[in-house]
Amino acid sequence: MKYSFDTYRLYQSEKRFSYLLRIKVTMKEEVDCRVLESAVNTAIKRYPYLAVRVITQPDGAYDFLPNDEKVVVIKTSANMPNLGEEKVNRHLVFLDYEGRDIYFNISHSLCGGHGSFPFIMTTIYQYVKEKYNVEPYAPAIRKPDSPLLENEMAEPTVDMLPNKPSAYKYKGKKPTLMAMDYMNGLLNPFKRKPNYMEFAFRQKDIMEFAHQNDFSVVSVFIVLMAKALDKVLPEKCKVIGAETANCPLEQMGIGNAHVDLLTHIFIDYDREILSREMDFLGTMTRGNIILQKDLNTCQDEIRKVIKLYEETEKITGKKNKIKYIEENNLSKGKDARHGTFLCNYTGRMDWGEVGKYVESYVAIIEGHLTMEVTSIDNRIFLSIMYLIDGSKYTKAFIEVLDELSIPYRAKGPFPKNLGKHHVD
Questions:
Q1: What is the Cα–Cα distance from 8 to 284, expressed in whole angstroms?
Q2: What is the pLDDT of residue 346?
Q3: Any idea what the Cα angle at residue 255 is, between residues 208 and 211, rounded to 5°?
Q4: Helix (H) or strand (E) holding 394
Q5: How far apart are CA 218 and CA 405, in angstroms?
Q6: Which side of the chain, N or C, has fewer Cβ within a 10 Å radius?
Q7: Residues near 332 by beta carbon (within 8 Å), at least 6 away in sequence
Q8: What predicted TM-score, i.e. pTM, was given to this entire model?
Q9: Cβ 59 vs Cβ 316: under 8 Å
């Protein structure tokens, strides 16, 4: 493709939905704004693919140019600036802070949750180094002066995919969709209330439960939420569907790449199945994930994404490109699939000694009944996002945790405070 793979998400309409990652890192001590500003502007130099501004080429295509302006750090407020505005020096990244909380606001065009890890970890490493005048031992964190990794700026292409056709296709059972919740959350100002809850777990508690019942980390939380929804959804809802994202870049030979390329995995639960033994649910869920994340299985979805971007490139005029992306959005239309809820595991982060200074790490994104799971050292964090009041779902989720004797700490709800993009 002529333009960066990262540019194509910018054509998506944000009339009602935000395509922004908001990562909340809670430190153990009050945030020092001056040190944070110094740290992030040292760290960003290590990531040239994040230090960009958007321009429009003569053919109407979005493109990136290097942005040497400072990354802006501001006090958290109810009215946050948009990415790409002059207020944030036209960056697609800015930070805000309040008390012990540091928020990283990053365009979903630049990377996904997993792709944002390295930059955030480098920033927090540098912050700890400057604030406490220490050199924390953290070999897994990329230092500000470290070179780019092999394939860190690589982009996916069709020739990285298998030559043989997909051997398996998951046949869905038409799970319940939260249609009214979404309509109220997106269209009804009296019902709309974007918020999230935070949960913290000891890693050993989750891993012991997982090992005893044949779960992986993500499948634990998928089944917990499916069982929670089984408590509150009406009887007419026959199937509860889980959706989880898969990053295929490693299988494509570019595991260090920062780009946001995801496929989607679906597990459908007939309501009566959710009363079965936990080890049955664990094996069923984990088996479906393993099968669908295989590159030979998920390659069709990847081909569709690449084709969509290539076709968009052929169209002249920004408005025409935006229209084409909107009309051919792979998440819409008769062939689009969705779960009743979404649960993603963005992976475990090895912070080394830096982890001693961090209390929690949660991802905040748009969506309803959307769950993001992260892990630092011996702790696992979960955020559950809603577009309307989600208290009935959260209460049911907590009931399931209590019934299964899984220890946890819950906080919230908190407003999402998600911004959007402003690109010329």
A1: 36
A2: 87
A3: 10
A4: helix 391-403
A5: 18
A6: C
A7: none
A8: 0.95
A9: yes
Residues 6+ apart with CB under 8 A from 21: 104, 105, 106, 107, 108, 111, 112, 113, 116, 363, 364, 365
List the structure tokens of 228.
């929670």
Distance CA 9, CA 149 (A): 24
β-pairing verdict for 239-246 and 341-349: parallel
307 with 301: CB under 8 angstroms?
Answer: no
Is 376 within 8 Å of 180 (Cβ atoms)? Answer: no
Query: Could you check whether the bond before residue 413 is cis, i.e. omega within 30 degrees of 0?
Result: yes
The label of the residue with tokens 């089984």 reads 230
The helix (H) or strand (E) run that includes residue 234 is none
Amino acid at 35: V
Q: How many angstroms separate the CA atoms of 272 and 270, rounded? A: 6
- Whole-angstrom CA distances from 328 to 8, 265, 266, 334 are 13, 20, 21, 11
d(CA 100, CA 303): 43
Is residue 127 within 8 Å of residue 340, measured between CB atoms? no
Q: Torsion over CA of 396, 398, 403 and 408, rounded to 10 degrees?
A: 170
Cα dihedral 60, 62, 63, 64, rounded to 10, equals 140
Backbone angle region of 149, left / alpha / beta, with phi > 0 → left and psi within -120 to 50 → alpha: beta
CA–CA separation, 245 and 112 (whole Å): 11
Query: If you average pLDDT over residues 100-120, what whole number do you get?
Result: 93
For 247-304, how does the pLDDT look when each residue is reduced to its tens digit (9 = 90+)?
999 999 999 999 999 999 999 999 999 999 999 999 999 999 999 999 999 999 999 9
Number of helices and strands (H, E) in the chain? 9, 14
Residue type, 361: Y
Start-to-end Cα distance in the chain = 22
* Rg of the chain in Å (alpha carbons): 21
DSSP notation for 242-255 = EEEEE--TTTTT-T
Whats the size of the chain, residue-wise? 424
pLDDT at 38 over 90: yes
